[in-house]
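Morning. Coffee machine broken again, so started the prediction first thing and wrote up yesterday's gels while waiting. Chain of 446 residues, entered below exactly as on the submission form.
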Amino acid sequence: MTSTIENRRVRMPAPARTIGFVTACSIVIANIIGTGIFTSLGFQLPEIHSGFTLLMLWVVGGIAALCGALCYGELSAALPRSGGEYHFLSQIYHPALGFMAGFISATVGFAAPIALAAMAFGKYMHGVLGFGSPVILSFAVVWLVAIFHLKNLQVGSAFQNLWTIVKLLLISTLITAGFFVEPKQEITFLPQPGDTTSIFSGAFAVALVYVMYSYSGWNASSYIIGEIKKPEKNVPRSLLAGTLVVVAAYVLVNAIFLVTTPQEEMRAQLEVGLIAGKHIFGANGGRVAGAVICLGLVSAISSMTWIGPRVSMSMGEDHWWLRLLGRKNPHGIPTNAMVLQLLIVNLLLLTRSFENVVQYTQFSLLLCSLFTVLGVMVLRATHPEIARPYRVWAYPLPPIIFAAITLWMMFYLLRWRTIESLAGLTTALVGLLLYFCAGKQLHRSV
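Came back before lunch.
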């Protein structure tokens, strides 16, 4: 594959590769486990009541995430550069699609989940402490995390690993404690009559969107390929290992919630973790669960704060009119891009209306990931000569399975959540419009 580089593209030195396999795995795990695991079950219970079907949501979501991770692993090894979908879609299809994906990621793709996690942090921390403004606490956590990551990569790696380990230990404690809670709820996780029909229903597909939001981040380390040691090996392995750990944790956590807490208490409630915590840990369970959630949210905010600016940085390196975003400090940190994301997060925090924002972002994010996963098949057909240090296992099943599940969700999103889906589609179209209006060509290897 020969390289054609746009004349006015901003040339930047290659970043230092300082991130190892363990840190890459922790980024994937931390970026996945966030707000969703502590809220999604409440959205699923109004339409789905079977224990088997509820757990199948997390299994099917995990299969989709795992298939996506395997596909991203091959693309990451074949096209090693930071930027995620922005880079992949530009290389495989056309720079316009890459710019569209980068625009989505740079505006709401990372900023909205960070803001949502920060709002949850403020609310839960207020419950733990019993004082303080949730809004001020939300602002404080995003600024504190950003300061850590503005230092250097070594500080960021240590911070990320610490919080990820703490989060996994606390989730393990939650699962373990749940096994000893008596009495257990009368629920079975074995298949029951009608479960098959429920699994193939529109309600299951829409509920799966919340699950995929909870799994979002399985592609995390592909955004920072340029900073990972031996990316052809460590990126695919980190995506696979991190996703498998989270699938196991999600299934176990939701099973514990269901066997320890009455469904009617959790139905249509956002604070599922707090409600279940009262049943698992007793009278003070609310504060304990709140502390667990707060620590987990710090890790999720940290991971997204780290990864998001790398997309804007790649766009800044490729487009002279965005060159300020491509600049890095002496430690290799994309300072301008990180500050821009922080400003967007702060604006979103001021709106205090993130549930609608998250709903509409899912359609556009699913669209980008669908194009990217199918890109594995397209790239094999158009450029079979490219070196592929890692190849998708059981090809072509993973991209086909991921595409089928994603298209199924998108169909029912358009049908049942038309306004939010069209808003997400509009966001993608705005990104395309900006690209063609600017009239600039992205770096593309053909």
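The domain at 18-438 is CATH 1.20.1740.10 (Amino acid/polyamine transporter I). Going to sketch it on the whiteboard this afternoon.
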